[in-house]
Design goal:
Two copies of one chain form a homodimer. Chain A has 13 helices and seven strands. By secondary structure, chain A is of the alpha/beta class. In chain A, helix 6 runs parallel beside helix 7. In chain A, strands 1, 2, 3, 4, 5, 6 and 7 form a seven-stranded parallel sheet that branches. The interface between A and B is medium-sized, with 35 and 35 residues.
Chain lengths: 311, 311
């Protein structure tokens, strides 16, 4: 009798746990955050902090508008200290790390945080990170990648940055399964969410195979691309915002001023260049963007909220 | 008979050689260069190339005036590649290396060319070079200094820079005898002249004890200092040029534009800051400076000429 009673209890408990788990799994990220399933949630995220003074200054200015509310920092870059001082003075700011394994400009370069002879597979013949994400991914030893991205996180923390999330400069860490496994392992060790969108699963089928049910990932990432003419910048973004689907979307933007430093850094490279970044700054700090958010019932959220979902 | 004849010859040869040697030793650097003893020879030298785009752009512009005719490059700094491209395209330019063991700005930092774990004595707790030359010199292991400055020379050469001379950022390598010995050993190995002035012997008595008769050093170095009010800039330099003594003088200047990048880099530090460097640029590219050179019969020379004296 007692045995059969215990067995019945055990079955009931198992059914209950399984039901909770399946509910948990089928809940959208919006719901897990406490919003209705049809809420339109948006992170407006500026990449490349620390790269240049112009990037830091424009992004800090955009934060003040309240319309850009998240960004990530390139630890190996020369202006890290300036943005670390901002992070220490503004601990509420939603700042992540833009883990960096490429050095893509030709006039102005950077290299690893690790001792260079410990991460040789990441470096070009001149001792800098490689120019492109495909070259970087093809040559990178995943063990050295793990050492380097761990060192970047440690240096950021040592400078008083408490990152709320991780992403990958130029997407190098999404280029193949081995690199993404390293990225996710380091993120889990640090209990930090990673920029991953469900819409990427179709083009990178290793993503769902590595992700676990309780990893936090968003619904989609939007970004502009070189096919958009400069005159169509505001229209591209306006259309995207008007058509925004429910769920969590991250708009990834690149802010800087179109000044001498940025022109020098991005010389001969209009894509993601100085004028490009000024156009992003102008749109995302505009009243037009503020009105679009209101008119389309879009709520801004940050990676800090998403990070709380990580157990 | 034959023996005494040989002995006589030997004595005559010795006397002749000794006379040539003493003439050689007592010749001034100006005379060794083929100029009269009373010639006023001047190198107008801009420091800190590679530090920032603003520094590179202003120095290249000043070179075009013909009035600034020499400069040196900081290999560990982010804008090295931009100035290396200039050096490759302008092989006649008088470009040396400004060997760097300090990272003196707080918003914007740099570290070693060597793997960081091989030169730990050169680094602060954040992994960058130290802020001041005195701190750097007090902590530096001379063996690690030798590794690092050799690596800086090798990286410059690998990028196609053929340095004409060496000097030391913030004078770190002149701070004590051990560091200067390393500096001079590396310079001799590379057959490059080093910025040393006879007028420094009084305040650093280890200098003459290490220098050899055939080392090339100049008569004096002039530079402005923070005691000069911004409004007195042109007067300070004009007076110095009018009073210029015969021999080889190097005026050491710091060029950049007073723009957002330089203001960001030198924030809260007016000495050698953005406006300082703009003042230097304005004076040394001016017609006033050109006239002063003419009126005072001053001839511009470069380190390239001095380097030819090294056997």
């Amino acid at each position: 009798m007692r045995r059969s009673l215990l067995a019945t209890f055990a079955v009931l408990i198992l059914l209950f746990v399984s039901d909770v788990r399946s509910q948990e799994v089928t809940k959208t990220v919006a719901e897990r955050l406490g919003y209705p399933r049809d809420a339109k949630l948006l992170i407006v995220h500026a990449d490349d902090l620390g790269m240049a003074h112009s990037v830091n200054a424009a992004t800090i200015k955009a934060f003040e508008s309240g319309l850009v509310n998240s960004a990530s920092i390139m630890v190996p870059c020369p202006w890290l200290s300036e943005i670390a001082a901002y992070a220490r003075a503004n601990p509420q700011a939603d700042l992540g790390l833009h883990l960096t394994l490429t050095s893509e400009w030709t006039s102005f370069r950077w290299g690893p945080v690790m001792p260079s002879d410990k991460v040789k597979s990441l470096l070009d013949k001149d001792g800098f990170f490689r120019l492109t994400e495909s070259e970087a991914a093809a040559q990178a030893d995943p063990k050295e990648v793990e050492l380097e991205i761990t060192a970047q996180i440690e240096r950021a923390k040592a400078l008083g940055i408490q990152p709320t999330h991780l992403d990958s400069h130029m997407g190098t860490l999404y280029q193949n399964k081995a690199l993404f496994e390293v990225f996710l392992r380091v993120a889990r060790i640090n209990k930090l969410p990673v920029r991953v969108a469900k819409t990427w699963f179709a083009r990178a089928d290793f993503l769902p195979s590595i992700l676990k049910a309780d990893d936090v990932y968003i619904d989609r990432v939007l970004d502009i691309n070189p096919s958009v003419a400069p005159g169509d910048w505001a229209k591209f973004y306006s259309d995207a915002i008007k058509k925004l689907e429910p769920g969590v979307t991250e708009i990834v933007i690149h802010l800087a001023y179109d000044d001498a430093e940025m022109r020098g850094a991005t010389v001969n490279h209009p894509d993601w260049g100085a004028a490009w970044r000024q156009r992003d700054f102008d749109f995302f700090t505009s009243d037009e963007f503020r009105k679009l958010l209101q008119e389309n019932q879009i709520k801004l959220i940050t990676w800090r909220e998403l990070a709380k979902l990580i157990k």
